[in-house]
Amino acid sequence: MSWRIPFFAGSDQVQTPSSTHGVPTQSWYPPSVIPPSTQSSAYSTSSSSELMSLSADAKSAGIVSQLKYKSVDELKKLLADKAAYKAFFNSLDEVRIQNHTYGDLRKEMLQLAESNLEKEPSLVELKNQCNVIRTSELASAQEKLAELSRQRDGIVHSYSRSGLLDKLNEAAYKADEDSEMLQTKLQKEDVDIRTFVQSYKNLRTTHHKLTLLYLAAKTSVF
Hints:
Elements: H1 36-67, H2 72-80, H3 82-91, H4 93-158, H5 161-187, H6 193-219
Helix pairs in contact: 2-3, 5-6
């Protein structure tokens, strides 16, 4: 690029062009020097803007094409008469498409609502059945839990200090009762004397032994 250097009479100074005048608005760098990301983002932004602009222009052109054939009186009527304006507005293709879409959506929503209302009795019945099943299963589970709790308490008691004392006392009491019954049999002559003496001796020995163990365990601390 060449610059014109003016010469003025009586002056040997050279005037250079100002930095703010004559500078080209475009970049001096070739397109290959510009980063690709900048180029692509700028292109996509401009492309989307152009598409939106073209779409808006197409819609506006469609409306204008319907208005330009109307007379002045018809245009005034559109501005003054709300009913006429509404009729014209609803006759536009874009509005008719939107109204048709809205009608389809409304129809589908009504169908879904009716379907839900038809299923409501079945849902209520299923809910009641679930409540009955849950109540019965809960009662059965509680009964089993109570039975297991009783069994656990019985096992714990049988191996506790009081449980062992009760067992000793019951065994001593049973040996005493058996010896009394043996005496009754002897009186009725249901048993011979030799058998009576041997059995009675064993029962009384067992009774006294268990009684002593019971008393010793009851008075001891363990």
